[in-house]
Specification:
The protein is of the alpha/beta class. Helices cover about 35% and strands about 20% of the residues. It is built from 12 helices and 14 strands. The strands form 3 sheets. It has a 10-stranded mixed beta sheet with strand order 3-4-5-6-9-10-11-12-13-14. The chain has a two-stranded parallel sheet with strand order 1-2. A two-stranded antiparallel sheet has the order 7-8. α5 links the parallel β9 and β10. It binds S-adenosyl-L-homocysteine. S-adenosyl-L-homocysteine (SAH) binds next to β10 and β12.
């Protein structure tokens, strides 16, 4: 059955026309879905019973079922949502001073195989539809009775490997008649699928782009991220420069520091040489150790020396606050645990 949340307003108008309804019905339905956030067609009380029945016959409303919800001491909340096909995805809600940010998943599993990521080792099943992506925010707003102000595409999956649905989801998030989350409040993170970075730059949308870099050295980066064998750092940087030229937006480079791996001063030096003169920002993350993972968190002293080196050499860098570490909020951790221990509560 078609998912009614897969449609942005203009497409929903076409859908309504196709079932013999007036386009303004689409506006009403869109508002029920993304402003009132109702969970059933029966609650759409300004539609005729006949239309509500027609909608029920043709569309699924895509309510995500909360299978688990974990709350961190720092206020971070992690959801494991059940989908209609029996699969599960995870989504994280983070509270910042400036508002609430939701970290959405884009795929069930991930094909990228990054060695430090908890999603690796979980089989890839499929990409999410646009409706399944936006439903993560809708379900959290329903559950918490709140308004989400920011969305980051940093959950499970590679957004650029589900490009069309991610763009569609961004457009639905943006729609002022619905969730009304501005493009500047949306950030897309990629492991570095170079051709898609060019396409993303050409979209003319004001979203932020984050690149999971993790090393400025091809040998080290390839040992952490297999995608580097397909698109190496030089090709990646060329695409990043194109993005900055085209959009005039600052790129955020994610760099997870692992002890004795990518966190020495030589590594910092290579990073400075690579990023020198570029409109960018480096987001340092103390790497989260995953089960059976070989990477260890760099020490605080090590992290401070690394960031000082970058800042002293003209690269703006910050350390990402670790939110939700007590509830396994890092990429893939909850789903991985749930797959292994389905009865654990
Ligand atoms: N596939 C996309 C988005 C999902 S991962 C990407 O690679 O960017 C979101 C971010 O979490 C990425 O920067 C990723 O490198 C980082 N990440 C994954 N596992 C991590 C871990 N164990 N510790 C720290 N950061 C991690």
């Amino acid at each position: 059955m078609k998912n009614i949340k897969d449609y942005n307003l203009d497409d929903l108008k076409l859908e309504m026309q196709a079932i013999g309804e007036k386009p303004f019905r689409a506006e009403q339905i869109f508002k029920w879905l993304f402003v009132e956030k109702v969970k059933s067609f029966d609650e759409m009380t300004n539609l005729s019973l006949d239309l509500r029945n027609k909608l029920k016959e043709n569309y699924d409303i895509c309510n995500l079922e909360i299978e688990r919800k974990l709350e961190s001491k720092d206020g971070t909340k992690k959801y494991l949502f059940g989908l209609s096909d029996g699969n599960a995805i995870e989504t994280v809600l983070m509270q910042y001073k400036y508002g609430k940010t939701v970290c959405v998943s884009t795929q069930i599993g991930c094909k990228m195989g990054c060695k430090f990521c908890a999603s690796t080792g979980i089989p890839f099943i499929r990409s999410l539809t646009a409706g399944e992506i936006v439903s993560q925010v809708v379900a959290i707003e329903q559950d918490e009775n709140c308004k989400v102000s920011n969305v980051v595409f940093m959950g499970i999956g590679e957004p650029m490997d589900n490009f069309d649905n991610v763009l569609k989801a961004i457009a639905i998030f943006n729609n002022q008649k619905g969730l009304n989350i501005g493009a500047r409040h949306i950030s897309v993170s990629t492991s570095g699928i170079v051709p898609k970075i060019y396409e993303f730059a050409d979209q003319n949308i004001q979203c932020s782009l984050a690149i999971s870099l993790h090393s400025a050295n091809n040998e080290v980066r390839s040992s952490m991220m297999p995608v580097n064998n397909a698109y190496n750092i030089q090709e990646l940087m060329k695409a990043c420069r194109y993005y900055v030229e085209k959009t005039n937006r600052r790129i955020s480079f994610e760099y997870a520091l692992a002890k004795d791996n990518n966190s020495n001063l030589d590594d910092a030096k290579e990073l400075v040489n690579l990023l020198h003169g570029m409109l960018c920002h480096v987001n340092l993350i103390p790497i989260n150790k995953i089960e059976n993972g070989k990477f260890q968190k760099a020490s605080l002293d090590n992290i401070m020396k690394f960031i000082d080196y970058l800042n002293d050499h003209g690269i703006v860098a910050t350390i990402r606050r670790e939110l939700g570490s007590d509830i396994d909020a890092a990429c893939g951790q909850l789903r991985r645990k749930n797959l292994k221990q389905p009865s654990e509560e």
